[in-house]
Amino acid sequence: MEANMTTPHDGGDEEEYVLLDLDGVSNIINIPPNAKYILTGLDTLNPVLIIDDKLKLIGEYEETIGTCIAFTEQDNPVVHEESGPSDANLFSATRIIDSNQPPTKEVKPLCQLHKVLKFKISPDSEIQSATTKDAK
């Protein structure tokens, strides 16, 4: 997950990107890919992430060391470009998409990160009390 924080700076807005790191809880809980979530308190020391109105996670910021860049990935179809002079070449200077080839992946830099927001399960989260009941 990724959050975009906006803070005022000299009368304008400065964007700051934050990576939401869920690795610390991913082996304990299963978060569906389309789960609804609410992220609050980005401007506090411990932001709160509530998933599906029942799971509460508490975050803590860590500064990145060195350069940390987030990338985006997108599918691109395989394209053949016809070139070269030819009287018989009816498709000169055209591009043909090859539907028999699987699309290639293109990776582009998205933003530079300055902070990582690591999450842990809140002591008052429903999942914590459900796990405690199952253990008895």
From TrEMBL:
GO terms for cellular component: transcription factor TFIIIC complex. Signal peptide: none annotated. This is Uncharacterized protein LOC107462628. InterPro entries: GTF3C6-like (IPR042771), TFIIIC_triple_barrel (IPR019481). It comes from the Eukaryota. Transmembrane segments: none annotated. GO terms for biological process: transcription by RNA polymerase III. It holds the Pfam family TFIIIC_sub6. Residues 14-120 form the Transcription factor TFIIIC triple barrel domain.
